[in-house]
Amino acid sequence: MESFRNRLNKNTIPEHVAIIMDGNGRWAAKHGKARVFGHESGVESVRSVVEGAGEIGIKYLTLYAFSTENWDRPKEEVDALMELLVHAIEIETESLMKNNVRLSTIGDIDSMPTKVKEKLERCIDFLNSNTGLNLILALSYSSKWEIVNAVKELVQDVMNNKLKPEIINNELFENYLNTAEIPDPELLIRTSGEYRISNFLLWQIAYSELYFTEKLWPDFRKDDLFEAVFDYQNRERRFGKTSEQLIS
Ligand code: IPE
Ligand code: IPE
Ligand code: MG
Q1: Which atom of ligand 2 is the closest one to the Cα of 20?
Q2: Percentage of the chain surpassing pLDDT 70?
Q3: 13 and 229 in contact (C-beta within 8 Å)?
Q4: Average confidence (pLDDT) over 72-91
Q5: 171 alpha carbon – ligand 3 mean position (Å)
Q6: pLDDT score for 94
Q7: pTM score
Q8: Number of the ligand 1 atom closest to the C-alpha atom of 23
Q9: pLDDT at 155 > cutoff 80
Q10: How does residue 22 score in pLDDT terms, banded at 50, 70 and 90?
């Protein structure tokens, strides 16, 4: 079977793809291993998907790596995930550089362990002048947290007379989100056969196309990304209009 890559329309590649990387624990269980083994194997999937995204000209790739709610997992798993993050940044930085990838984060980065924060900052700085794919890691992220934070800052600006409430609209509000400057994702992918959003980018996915796959994250590779993009390209995005209106 021909790769999905060759079947893609180069003119309608989504600018921004977001992925809920789920199923590491089940993948590990399937292989008779501890959950952390699944997380480790998921790094290989990240590598492949980042490479693939760059190859087809996606400009923004947002990966949900750790949610606010994930802090409630057993301490050993949280600690292992933090260690893995440090390790993954260390070993992946060179290849991100080679692939011209820029890195940024969304989420409550201040709640991350100092070691993770420092590694991240260094890596972000190092990749700062790259011009290819923008890789965005959602860490200690949840959409409700992000929106409430945005409201707090916005209210502060109103109280300080920096902002008149009557001028608040969608565009203005978006400037207060972590994703200010980043276009909304056209496509959201979730692996592992779960059909939910789990507090991810609720505002930003208002009109995204949703793609669910049974594949567990450690089995997901760039060709699965291409398949999702191919599926996306065969949808009709109507934005409330009728099909006839889109054709004329
Ligand atoms: C996703 O895999 C990784 C994180 C949420 C950090 P899971 O760890 O949620 O794997 P499952 O859902 O238990 O299989
Ligand atoms: C969502 O996965 C968060 C990440 C992928 C980082 P979870 O596995 O935490 O989601 P739920 O709790 O099953 O919805
Ligand atoms: Mg899960």
Answers
A1: 5
A2: 100
A3: yes
A4: 98
A5: 32
A6: 97
A7: 0.98
A8: 14
A9: yes
A10: very high
Rounded-to-integer distance, Cα 178 and Cα 175, Å: 8
| Token code pair at residue 21 | 């990387």
The Å distance, Cα 248 to ligand 2 centre, comes to 42
The answer on pLDDT for 248 being more than 90 is no
Q: Whose CA is nearest to atom 10 of ligand 2?
A: 198
Distance CA 148, CA 146 (A): 6
Q: What is the model's pLDDT at position 1?
A: 64
Q: What angle do CA 213, 186, 132 make, to 5 degrees?
A: 100
Distance 24 CA to ligand 3 centre (A): 7
Domain ranges in the chain are 13-247
User: What CATH code would you report for 13-247?
Assistant: 3.40.1180.10
As a whole number of angstroms, the distance between CA 49 and CA 26 comes to 20
> How many Å lie between the centroid of ligand 2 and the Cα of residue 18?
14
- Ligand 1 atom 3: the closest Cα is on which residue? 22
Q: Report the alpha-carbon distance of residue 44 to residue 235 in Å, rounded.
A: 29
Query: Atom of ligand 2 at shortest distance to CA of 69?
Result: 9
Catalytic site residues? Answer: 22, 70
Residues with CB under 6 A from ligand 1: 21-26, 66, 70, 81, 192
Residue 43 DSSP symbol: H
Ligand nearest to the CA of 24: 1
Whole-angstrom distance, CA of residue 142 vs CA of residue 226 = 27
